[in-house]
Amino acid sequence: MASLIGIVANAFNEKVEQLRKGRSSVIETDHTLILGWNRKIHQVVSELVIANESRRRATIVVLADRDKVEMEDELKTHLPPRSRTQIIVRSGDPMSVADLKLTGLDSARSIIVLAPDDSDEADNFSIKTALAILNNPNRRAEPYKIVGEIKNEPNMAAAQLVGGTEAQWILGEDLISRLIVQTSRQRGLSAVYNDLLDFGGAELYLADVANLAGSTFGVAALSIPQGALVGVLNGDEVHINPPRDHVLTPDVRLIILAEDDDRLQFGAQAAFDAKAISLSKEKKRTPERTLILGANATLPMVLAELDSSSAPGSTIVLVEDGAEAPRVKLRNAKLEVKAANPASRAELEKLRVTTFDHVIVLANRDDRGVEHADARTLLILLNLRAITNGTSHNVNIVSEMLNDKNRELAQSNVSDDFIVSEQLVGNMLTMVSENFEMQRVLSEVISGDGPQLRLNPASWYVKTNTPVDFNTITEAALRRGEAPLGYRRVGGSSTPDHLQPVSGDGVVLNPNRTEMVVFGESDSIVVFSG
Predict the structure, then answer these.
(1) Predicted confidence band at 19 (pLDDT cuts at 50, 70, 90)?
(2) At 198, is the secondary structure helix, strand, or coil?
(3) Residues 19-43: what's their mean pLDDT?
(4) Cα gap 120→298, rounded to integer Å
C-alpha cells in the first residue's frame, strides 16, 4: 500500500509540474490566441477583456517563450477588476509547429502576433510565425484570421506574400508618425483618436444597409438614432465622408460610430432645427511654425506628413544632438536643423518656444531604451511647461511616450496631447483581430490623404449660446460636406449633468442625438472633413 501511494503521489507531482511548465494542450474553442510577448501584451489583453464583456464565455490563450508562472503573475496585475475573461498561458516557441499544437490553434477565432521589442529580428519573428501557421500540412481548411505588426516598411511586401488573405499587417511606425502629425495640428484631437482606437466608449462598427438601401448618405446619417454615420465600405473600397447625395446600394456596408453594434437601429429621418443652423465660411489656412524636439526612425515620415498638411510658407525647426537634415523633399514647408540638446532648458529658451504654433517631442528610441527615452521626453516636457507657464501664447504640444505608465507621470492640469506608441498600436491590433475588415477602415481613418478628422469651431455649424441637438449639428455638417462624430466642450458650455465626456479633454463622441447642448465660442465639432 505504501508503494502504491508513493507511485500515485509521484505521478501526481509529475503532472502538476508539467502543468506548471505550461506544456499541456488547450481544449477551449472560439478563443483569441496571442503568439509572442512584448510591451503591448498588457494593452492587448486589457482591450480584449473589454471587447469580451458581452460574451458569456470568453478565453484568451497566450503562447510565448517565457516561464508560465511569471507570465501569469504579470498578466494578473494588469487585468481589469472582476474580469469575466479566462486567461490561459502556455510556454513554448510560437515559430514551432509542435508548440503551436498546444494552443488549440485550429479552433481559435483570431490570432495576434506580438514580435519581440527592440529587436532587429522582430519582423522575421512575425513572418516565421505566420509561416508556421499557414504552411502546416495539417492546418485547418477554413482561413485563419492573423493580425501582426511589421516594424520596417521594406519587410511589408514579404509579410503580405506570406500572409495572403489570411493575415492583416499593421505598420506601427507609419501609424504613429501619421497620428503624431495629425494630433499636433489641433489641441484635443488625440483624445478623439484614443477613443476611436479602443473598446471603451464609442467605436467604429460595420453594419448592413438593411432598410436604408436606395437612400442617400445624408438621409441615412439622420436615420440612425444611436450612432453617427461616417462612411461606407463597398467591397474593398472604403469611402469616409462620401457626398451627401451618394446613393446606398444593397451590397455596401455602413461605417458607424456607436456604443454597441447590438443597439444599432435604423428609423425614419430625424427632425432638426433649421433656424439654429448658422454656417460660417472656413478661414483660409496661414503659414505655421512647428518645432520638433528629438529624432528617431519615424522622422522622415513625420516630416512628409507635416509638409502635406501645412500651408505654403510654413516653417519646421528640428532640434537634436548631432542632427542632420533627412533626405525628404518638402514642398510647403522650409526645414531648419539645429544641432543642440532638446532636453536643455537653456537651449529651449534660445529657441523662443512661444513663437511656435505646434511642438512635437519625438522619443529617441533608436539610441536609448524605453525608460531612458521616456525619461528624456519627461524632462523636455517639464522644461517646456516651465517656459510656457504664465504666457498668453497657446502652444499645442504633442509628445511620443513609449510606456503608458510614464504618460501617467507626465499628466498635469495642462491639456497637452499625448501619443503613446505602444498603446495605440496595441489597440489597433486588437480591433482588427475582433473585426478583420476593420483594418481597411482604420487605415483610411488615419490616412493623411483622404478626409481627415477635424475639430472645427461650433460657430461654423450652429448658433452659439442657443440650445441645439446633435441632429441639428448633423444636418449642418452635411450641408458643409462633412460627417460629424461628436463635439468638444472647453469651458462655459452647457450640457446635461448625466452626459459625461468620454475623455478628460471634454470630447464627447456619438452623443445622444436629441439631448440639447449650448455651445460657446471656444467649443468645437468633431467631423471628418475633406
Answers:
(1) low
(2) coil
(3) 84
(4) 16
